[in-house]
Each structure stands twice: as structure tokens, then as C-alpha cells.
């Protein structure tokens, strides 16, 4: 049976974050608010939990699950190297609506789907999400919806779609306009915008001081 916690109430927020942390550490699923849309998340290093996340969304491993971080420094332990382009974008847009794709560290024991040796990373600009991430560490997080349906802009919308496949729902209020993050691929010689969302391609190009390829 799923439990929803109203994070606008200070006591419920403390209780909810504690319950969510226990749930993540137990390899189960939570729904959390972010600065873009609501997300469904789990321990990034639990292959079984990631499989449960994909099953809840009715999605296959061909669409890998992104990873959310609670701090800038966390990225250093997750990727093969952090190029200057990534540092510049992190300083400009994290926390915020920009996701970065980099080669992941080969030593990591995780299975996020068919990533081809890469990982998509983001630090969300939402206090509830950040507090949970700083407690439990990196989380695999995808939009809180069944594949093919609109992303959830509220905890209620997420629960309508995902039901009891999620153990804990953290209700942070409406997310506002449900705009996905912008995705920038830094795995090649030239930065590529794979998806334009909350951050414009022009803003990315301005920070990098160069043109970027759009796909």
C-alpha cells in the first residue's frame, strides 16, 4: 500500500523524507518532486530496483534511466572524467534543468539500461529532491508516468498512473509547467543537444563559447 506525504507540512516532510530514504535503501520505488516534472526513483546501484522502475513505467531497457545527484562533487565518482565543458555547464546550470551525458566510470556496478557505457546526470533544483539525494546518494530517476502517457505534474497525477508499484509518494505541490530538462551529450568531440527543454540551446552555446550540434 502506497503512502503519500504532504511536504508542505514540516512534520510530514520530515517523516516522508525518512520513509523515502528507508524505501530507497530497501530497493523499492519512490515518487519525488523535481524542478521539471515529478520523478519515479530508486537506488541507482540496485539493478533489481531499476528493473522494478522500468516495469512500473512499462518501459524496456532500451531507454536508459537518468541519474539525479545531490551535489556537484558527486559526479567525480561516477564518470570516466569530467571535461571542462561539463564543469562549465555544471557551474552555469546546476542545480537546474540541464542533464549531461558522459562516459560512466567502468568500475561502477550498476545497470541503468542500454546505456552503451554512458550515463545521463542532473542535479535538480528542488529542496525535497536535494534533501533526499543528499541522504541516500545518486538515484536512478525517470519521469513519473507510464510510458506514452503525459509526465506527472503532481503527486496525485503520478499516483493515478503508477499506483501501488511505488511505496512512497512525496507531495511537493504542483510542479508548474511540465518542461523536461535539456540533454547535452558530451561523449564526443563536439557537444550535442539531444533534447531542448528547460535550458535553451542558445544558453548552452553561450556558456560553452561555441556552437553546439542539435540532434
TrEMBL record:
Where is it chiefly localized?
cytoplasm
Q: Which residues cross the membrane?
A: none
Which reaction(s) are listed as its catalytic activity?
L-threonine + hydrogencarbonate + ATP = L-threonylcarbamoyladenylate + diphosphate + H2O
What's a Pfam family in this record? Sua5_yciO_yrdC
EC main class here is transferase
The protein here is known as L-threonylcarbamoyladenylate synthase
**Gene3D superfamilies (UniProt xref):** DHBP synthase
Q: Which UniProt keywords apply?
A: ATP-binding, Cytoplasm, Nucleotide-binding, Nucleotidyltransferase, Transferase, tRNA processing
List the InterPro entries hit by this protein, alphabetically: DHBP_synth_RibB-like_a/b_dom, Sua5-like_dom, TC-AMP_synthase_SUA5
- The YrdC-like domain covers which part of the protein? 14-199
Presence of keyword Transferase: yes
Location of this chain's protein in the cell: Cytoplasm
Gene Ontology MF: a single term:
L-threonylcarbamoyladenylate synthase
NCBIfam families, sorted: L-threonylcarbamoyladenylate synthase
Amino acid at each position: 500500500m502506497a503512502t503519500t506525504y504532504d511536504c508542505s507540512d514540516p512534520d510530514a516532510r520530515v517523516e516522508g523524507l525518512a520513509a523515502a530514504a528507508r524505501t530507497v535503501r530497501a530497493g523499492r520505488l519512490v515518487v519525488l518532486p523535481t524542478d521539471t516534472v515529478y520523478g519515479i526513483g530508486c537506488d541507482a546501484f540496485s539493478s533489481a530496483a531499476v528493473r522494478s522502475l522500468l516495469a512500473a513505467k512499462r518501459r524496456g531497457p532500451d531507454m536508459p534511466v537518468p541519474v539525479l545527484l545531490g551535489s556537484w562533487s558527486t559526479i567525480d565518482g561516477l564518470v570516466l572524467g569530467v571535461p571542462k565543458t561539463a564543469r562549465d555547464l555544471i557551474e552555469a546550470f546546476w542545480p537546474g534543468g540541464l542533464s549531461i551525458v558522459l562516459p560512466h566510470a567502468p568500475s561502477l556496478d550498476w545497470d541503468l539500461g542500454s546505456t552503451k557505457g554512458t550515463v545521463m546526470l542532473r542535479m535538480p533544483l528542488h529542496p525535497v529532491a536535494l534533501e533526499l539525494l543528499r541522504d541516500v546518494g545518486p538515484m536512478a530517476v525517470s519521469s513519473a508516468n507510464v510510458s506514452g502517457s503525459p509526465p506527472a505534474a503532481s503527486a496525485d497525477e503520478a499516483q493515478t498512473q503508477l499506483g501501488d508499484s511505488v511505496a512512497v509518494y512525496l507531495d511537493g505541490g504542483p510542479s508548474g509547467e511540465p518542461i523536461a530538462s535539456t540533454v547535452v551529450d558530451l561523449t564526443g568531440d563536439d557537444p550535442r543537444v539531444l533534447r531542448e527543454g528547460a535550458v535553451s540551446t542558445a544558453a548552452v552555446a553561450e556558456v560553452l563559447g561555441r556552437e553546439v550540434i542539435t540532434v
